[in-house]
Amino acid sequence: MSCVFVTGTDTEVGKTFVSCALLERLAQGGVATLAMKPVAAGAVQTKAGLRNEDAVQLQSAMSVPSVPYEAVNPVCFEAPIAPHIAAATQQQVLTVSHLASAAQQLQRSYPHDLFLVEGAGGWLVPLNQQESLADLALALNAKVVLVVGMKLGCLNHALLTYAELQRQAVEVVGWVANQVSETPMQHAEENLAWLQRHLPVPLLANLPYLATASNQAASTSAVDYFPDSQTLMSLLQGKGVLSPA
Ligand SMILES: Nc1ncnc2c1ncn2[C@@H]1O[C@H](COP(=O)(O)OP(=O)(O)OP(=O)(O)O)[C@@H](O)[C@H]1O
Ligand SMILES: C[C@H](N)[C@H](N)CCCCCC(=O)O
Ligand SMILES: [Mg+2]
Predict the structure, then answer these.
(1) How far is ligand 3, taken at its centre, from the CA of residue 168, in Å?
(2) Which sites are catalytic (predicted)?
């Protein structure tokens, strides 16, 4: 069973946006997808309890039906802050062992072809004083998709993230260039070309800024920028070929 961990160069770079597009593209080809947001910081109180928008979107984009919210997002904090700090304000301590067990339980409970896990913020966001979300991805033996928010500063952020992924011997199956602002970054093409030369993994998609009425509609329109479902599944399983630079 394939496990893909979606990380990014920062918070708010489009990890959820890309995750939903990946899930929808795979579903078009009949791939059974299951998704999880293990830790969310930034949620609203509802009658059903705390709800994080990322987890709600993943829950509706995955193809396996009727997965309860608490299984998709077992740990949720209201404050949009670093997760280990949010946990401390609630006298809680996050651990890889607890989150990995929840992920394994979810995978055992629902037959699927691909399990997608969205991080929070970037690759090294802490869970506690010793462990980070990277340790969770390693515990899940996940392959990684790196989302690069195309804005000034992204070259450094992308290279640092990729260097750390390599140092930890993580298999990076691809990256996505995502235009995060309505006003494109200056010299976007040169930045893209530079990243293509320095990230030696397939570019899964080069996404423009897609302004639509809702996040869900926008990520649905992002689907067409990805390879077809079968090709995408192969790429996510690490069977892809390098995109031409
Ligand atoms: N290509 C795009 N076109 C239009 N809107 C986008 C695009 N990419 C991202 N967005 C929007 O930008 C915002 C941030 O994206 P998103 O929530 O996916 O970031 P994230 O990396 O998942 O953040 P977090 O670290 O909080 O999980 C969202 O409102 C999303 O819909
Ligand atoms: C609130 C935000 N959108 C995410 N849920 C959490 C981002 C944590 C970033 C921590 C950091 O790297 O400083
Ligand atoms: Mg997100």
Answers:
(1) 23
(2) 37
Among protein residues, the one whose CA lies closest to atom 2 of ligand 2: 80
Nearest ligand for residue 41 CA: 2
Whether the CB-CB separation of 180 and 150 falls below 8 Å is answered with yes
Residues 6 or more apart whose CB falls under 8 angstroms from that of 199 comprise: 146, 158, 162, 172, 175
Q: What are the tens digits of pLDDT across the range 49-86? A: 999 999 999 999 999 999 999 999 999 999 999 999 99
Q: Domain ranges for the chain, please list them.
A: 2-236
Top-level CATH class of 2-236? alpha beta
Q: Which atom of ligand 2 is nearest to the CA of 124?
A: 12
In terms of DSSP H, where are the helices of the chain? 15-28, 53-61, 69-72, 83-89, 96-109, 133-139, 154-167, 188-198, 215-222, 229-236
ipTM above 0.85, yes or no: yes
Question: Can 143 be counted among the known catalytic residues?
Answer: no
